[in-house]
Amino acid sequence: xxxxxxxxxxxxxxxxxxxxxxxxxxxxxxxxxxxxxxxxxxxxxxxxxxxxxxxxxxxxxxxxxxxxxxxxxxxxxxxxxxxxxxxxxxxxxxxxxxxxxxxxxxxxxxxxxxxxxxxxxxxxxxxxxxxxxxxxxxxxxxxxxxxxxxxxxxxxxxxxxxxxxxxxxxxxxxxxxxxxxxxxxxxxxxxxxxxxxxxxxxxxxxxxxxxxxxxxxxxxxxxxxxxxxxxxxxxxxxxxxxxxxxxxxxxxxxxxxxxxxx
Length: 262
What we know:
The chain is of the alpha/beta class. Helix content is 40%, strand content 17%.
């Protein structure tokens, strides 16, 4: 069974904005919007943004939401605290590389983080991600060869890195245990000087408005059992009104219902 979630990053709330920009929606506003749009769950966002364990349980329970997972960049602080929270509330540890593109992925760090998760009864997955040392299909293949963690398949990041989400499903299906569905505009990526500029320039767009073959992807996804998290990463300018982005996430939820029956 597929369960559909969203994430605070779709509303402009993530590590580079929370506590730094004045117009980032607060946790109550984001969770209210996620629930009102018809999503069943959320990912965590920055550690502490949705509150401590007790606050998180109350906030999710009041809205009938579940915690789908939590993004953990390796080699940065917060691994143990995030794993403790997930062990208490539920949700999947989503590991990601935090190193620069010009280095070798730290396979030992991934193994250590996976071990720490499993000590708590959690099964981690790994998020390939633009701007990191695991982004291209070749790098993902190396990840699968060198580690035993599951794979989070992200349609937007994989397309931006030159991959094919449908082929990824066929080749890596046995390891895929979490899905982020994104659409991406490759013209924005081509015009940008680097990934950071493309990301801030709105490369991730509403479902059905970019270059990902979402119809083909969902046809290939048949039989998947797990969370499907809609993400449309948004980097707000300091004076941006978040209301249009909140409305966009409601449209993304309707797109899934109307086009793929989710």
